[in-house]
Amino acid sequence: MNATIEKHTPKLMVLPTFLILLIISLVPLIYILSISLTNSTISKPFTDFVWFENYKKAFTDEVFGTSLVNTLVFAFSVTTIQTFFGFLLAYAMQQERKLGGVMRTLALLPLFTPPVAIAMIWRLIYDPNQGLLNYYLMKWGLVSGVIPFLGDKRLALPSIMLADIWQWTPFCFLLCLAALQSLPKDPFEAAMVDGASGWYVFKRLTLPMVAPQIIVIFLFRLLIALKVFDLVYMLTFGGPGNSTQVASFYIYRVSFKQFQTGYGGALSILVLILISVLATLLTKGRETILKRIE
Amino acid sequence: MLEAKSTNSLESAFEANEKKTLAFYLKWVFFGRPARIILLIIFLLAIILPIFYIAMTSLKEPIEIRTSGALLPRGEITTVNWVKAFANVPLLRYLLNSTVVALVSTILVLIVAVPTTYSIIRFNTGGWFFPAWILGTYVMPPIVVSIPIFAMVKMVQLQNTLAGLILVHTMANLPIAVWLIDSYIRAIPKELEQAAWIDGYSKFETLARVVVPLIRPGVLATGVITLILSWNEFLFALILTYGVKSNTFPIGISRYIGEHGLQFGEMSAAALAGIVPIYILVFLSSRNLVEGLTRGGVKG
Fold first, then answer.
1. Which residues, in sequence order, are CB contacts of A51 under 8 Å at separation 6+?
2. Which of A5, A288, B69, B140 is the most buried (most CB within 10 A)?
3. Residue in chain B lying closest to A8 (CA)
4. Alpha-carbon Rg of chain A, whole angstroms?
């Protein structure tokens, strides 16, 4: 008896996780896949079988198209900016040891600030009448009238991006710093003995050596950025118009505000396919880049 | 060590350059020490400024907030916003709900995640597929599974209860917890466990008595991270709770603002009420947190 338990212990250890994964990924996937073929509503699931009507509808749904474009623009912009500045700051930090402890602790704060609080902070900063940004822009005479950052179709998405950049740049900074510090020291010492200049060492040693990890950081962050929901929900609710409509938020609106869970299911499947394709392409792209560096 | 050297070499490289032309000075200002320090100070201020701003706003007179968005209060500082926020909004209830959900779900996550991670790494349980499945689940946007999760929670009659949210947070945070604990278990030398087996320990005993004590910093970091993720979580709390008795802080406060509106002073105080506990936790465990986050983040 004991021997049997002992033999199967490894399986017993993963059993709860296996069951949980079934409940949170496999069962839901089957559920939305089947519900997407029906005209279900939130109170009456699995009624009115319509085959691929929902998918056809999705391809002609302009708002869905806008939400996909916005999601991609958002995710690629913030990820690029955050990785770039994160790396720049980490490189500077690596050479200024004294600030290290303080900076690391402070860098944790934005990442762990509740998104609802981040939304409140930035709503206050952007407010046309009582906000910090407009107050100083007006005071210093940089603008003639107040700017409705979150109420302007062109400015709303970049304004959300700025809040996101505040939240996530420190995280990219921490990851880049860890990547820089994990580099082997010998090549750098050799370069120093040879009297190579700082710029040369950076270009020829640091950058190529750290590139694989930076690309991983970029991909990791990108995949998280594609999920964007909280800040949109709390800062603009997708508006004005549909200018900040993003995929997650649109699916939420269709499923839980218009109660069309069948259509919401179809949109979910499409978004999932898009993300999987994107992830595969990017991983392939990463391998190509790495080969080129070698 | 290395950092100090590389700075010296940069400067000695400049010293070697005997003709100190304008280009030399420009280069030093833009790429040398001053540039680095200025960059880091800007970074520091950018992190602090928004938090400092709402802290100041929460201490301003409501009339002053309406007329000026200045950073520092001009008049007397006051606690009226704090008093009003706690009097008008059921903040304590929200915070209590959040605390219960975050604590219980974190304990459950750790109980499930540690043995799983150990089994995957040491016994290669589930081969390549299981870890890939866990990672895939983490990458999947939660909104995609929100309809079925909502249906399942309703099926077991746990909608609008803390228990329902606790279960969902436990399941939702499990992938990230496994991902975070992974590198800590990898770092343990196999020989230690083999010695334990020879001493007659079962696999479970080895995990509990040898492995867990060794990865305590990792378990702690993972626990703090999942605790905060649960505290901050928005989407599932949004679709699964709809009353004061089960609303967590993020949903409670955002619903309250949506229904009743809130003056900026009170809003700042309310936001800080949800921020402060997290920041205390971060300051207490910052060293572990940085280690935990960066170990998980950069492995290829």
1. A37
2. B69
3. B203
4. 24
Q: Does B47 touch chain A (CB under 8 A)?
A: yes
How would residue B83 be classed by pLDDT, with cut points 50, 70 and 90?
A: very high
Strands (E), chain A: none
Residues B157 and B45 grouped into a single domain = no
In a domain, B9, yes or no: no
Is residue B7's pLDDT more than 50? no
Q: Do B254 and A116 touch (CB under 8 A)?
A: yes
Asked whether residue B18 carries a pLDDT value surpassing 70, the answer given is no
A203, pLDDT greater than 90: no
The mean-pLDDT minimum among A86-100, A263-277, B136-150 falls in A86-100
Q: Which of B67, B82, B97 is the last residue of a domain?
A: B82
Range of the domain at B173: 86-297
Does some domain include residue B211?
yes
Over chain B, what is the mean pLDDT?
A: 85
In a domain, A55, yes or no: no
Token pair of B176 as six digits: 């990230």
Distances (CA, A) of A226 to A113, A248, A279, B139, B163: 19, 8, 11, 9, 29
Distance from the B187 Cα atom to the nearest Cα atom in chain A, whole angstroms:
15
- The ipTM, to two decimals, is 0.89
* CATH assignment of the domain containing A96: 1.10.3720.10
Give CA angle at B230 (A87, A86), nearest 5°: 5
B269–chain A Cβ distance below 8 A for any pair: no
Rounded to whole angstroms, how far apart are CA atoms A74 and A114? 20
Cα nearest neighbour of A275 on chain B: B140
Check A275 against B70: CB less than 8 A apart.
no
Q: Same domain, yes or no, for B168 and B274? A: yes
Write the residue in B53, B144, B232 that is nearest to A114 by C-beta.
Answer: B232
Q: What pLDDT score does B198 carry?
A: 84
| CB within 8 Å: B147 and A229 | no
Q: Which of A59-68, A137-146, A264-273, B46-55 has the lowest mean pLDDT?
A: A137-146
